[in-house]
Amino acid sequence: MDIKIFSDLFEIGLHPLPIFWDIEKKTATGYPEHVTDVQSGNGKHDLNDVKRWLQNITNANGIALKLYPPFFMFDFDLKNTTDKTVFDHWLKKVNATNSDVLSKLCIEKTRSGGYHVYAKFSQVSHKKMLAASEDGKEVISIYTGGLLSFCYPTPEYNLIHNDFTDIEELTQDEFDLLTACGLFFNKYTPKDGEYVPGEVIDYPIEYESIAMQFDNKCTDDLFEKLLNTLELFPVKDQRAKRVKDGATYFFYLRKGSVAAYSAKARFDKKRLFIFSGSFIKFPNFHTRINEADKSWRLTPTKIIFYYFDKDWGKTIDTIRELSEEYKIELVETSKAKQPIQDRLKFPYDIFPESVQQYIFCQSIQHEYLAAAILSAISTTIGNSVVLYPMPGYRVKSILYMAIVAPPGASKTPAINKAFEPIERIDQKMFEEYEAKMIDYKKLLTEYEQNKKSGGEKPEQPFFPQTLIKDSTIEMVAKILTFNKNGCCLLADELIGFLNRMNQYKQGDEIQKWLELWSGSSILIQRVTREANKIPDACCSILGGIQPGVVDAMGKDENQYNGFYHRFLFVYPEPWTKVEWKQIFVPESVQDSFYYLFESLYKLRSEDQMYYFLSDKANEIYKEWFDGKNKYYDKSDNDNVKGIIAKYQDYCLRFSLIIQVVTDGNKRSTIVTHLSMERAIRLTEYFLGNINKILKILSPESSYTDSNKVTVNY
After folding, report:
1. 539-545/487-491 β-pairing
2. Nearest 5°: phi and psi at 620?
3. Which helix (H) or strand (E) holds 393?
4. pLDDT, tens digit, 9 for 90 and up, residues 548-586
5. Which of 106, 130, 287, 479 is 20 to 30 A (C-alpha) from 307?
6. Residue ending a domain, choose from 325, 357, 383
């Protein structure tokens, strides 16, 4: 290998390394002993290094560029996609928009039929994937930050456009053009549980102690087991790498990989560093957002956490199991062992299996459907049960809920599917009501004709409807008079309900809805009509609303009266629009779903039953409740205080709903600790969602530390 080639590349500002390229194996089998020893002394290249490397690498026949900013490369890895025209179409897009930029690029074709596009831009700093296949494999990526790239004149690598000497600094617009054209070919959407570059996960305060103890006490054998669980195994005949601070890193390769190594492990500190981009669920070298990003330094706890799709409940359970197996003593500071989770993941296990099956076999976004079903169940339970968490404190299953989603995101279909069993019941009730009205009108005619002869005036039948569609508070009160077991105001678009309330600013419409939330008695008095008092009111609210108009919930007096504090918000990242597909829910799943509502509805006709907290449920709730009080006392913001107080009450409501559904036909009258644990996780989910909403309704109320994912309460 001619040393002048290296000299020329060094002069350009590139960092070439001599390699031996095995043509049969199509890989490099010889590198400089210290591949990072590219520059020496004052930071300028020294050809003596190259001479020394060439002496140690027999028959060097190729070059690997160690790419450092401002140099970088677009890597088109076409073996990872069925569309082999990606590069050609990318080049056409660039050429059609700004053909001049091509003069600043150097392009080569690789051994595998892919392409390397070398460029220079001062703002580039780290590797970034621009486009991936549908299964998440890299198709177009930016390589820099010390990454290696085999290049011409290595065998089977051929320059097809310009030379390395033609590389010139790109402008911001030119760089944006090249990357935007690359992003166009991305076909991959991250799944739940996959790592999102830039996110920082802190140990939850509830489990910070147990996680840190586990990391500190983790044995070598246990750490090795965790690596093997990821299908990482020691690289044979590979020496451990020592660094200047005396640390030793061991090389690990993923099962089936043909790379030199996939990860490095440091056993003294119990840290895993993943270098392979194929670990989609894990932060790795390629997902770094900058040099200071430490998220890819994985502790034993973080390995388990990402393995279980960022589920803290499963993570802590696994830590306890492994600690018991490996005789690791953990001192748990918390008496209550309630599992917790990512606040923005709906805890579907609050439902019985039949409901979960019904949710997951639908193409509707699952969070919308799950939340609507929760509201439908609470409506069906209605006034049939009441929870007494302490003497004199009465809690009902009333929920005020808003599903926040853009137009066409299936929030209305979700509401319709969730409430279909109740709609059927209401329809049956209406048919019975119509039949009674026919008889009533006949009897009323006979009564009017024979009024002089005496007789009792027939009593007009009523329609005991459960679902109310956008009515005034007077009509709601009238319906509640006839259906004392409880109702639900259902609004496809909640903004209509809000606008109607605002029409009565001089009245007490809003105040009545504030009172209805508590489930106590309400009194409707108007000059033009008789007073109407509902002694034991029970009415929920469910509606959809678009993110662009959600601020209407906190306008005018609603900004100060605690109106939106009473709402549960469902505000997940919307799914991408799915392709048309006919969905058939298995008959057995649908029947089980309908049966749940039918059985709960039948129990409405029985006497109201009282539920109480078990001792353990009370203990768990107290710990969680007292923890929220600390945030309440620290906050000087009335919105935060109001939300905490209302959601502490919601947790009790959730525990009642979950317990009643768990009991089925045989009501136990006791809320167990398991139901309370699930209720706490459900409350945390809604707290996570309302924190997102606060950024719209009350930006000064939400607080997000840039170093943490956790929020303000």
Report:
1. parallel
2. -65, -45
3. strand 393-395
4. 888 888 777 777 778 889 999 999 888 887 777 777 788
5. 130
6. 325
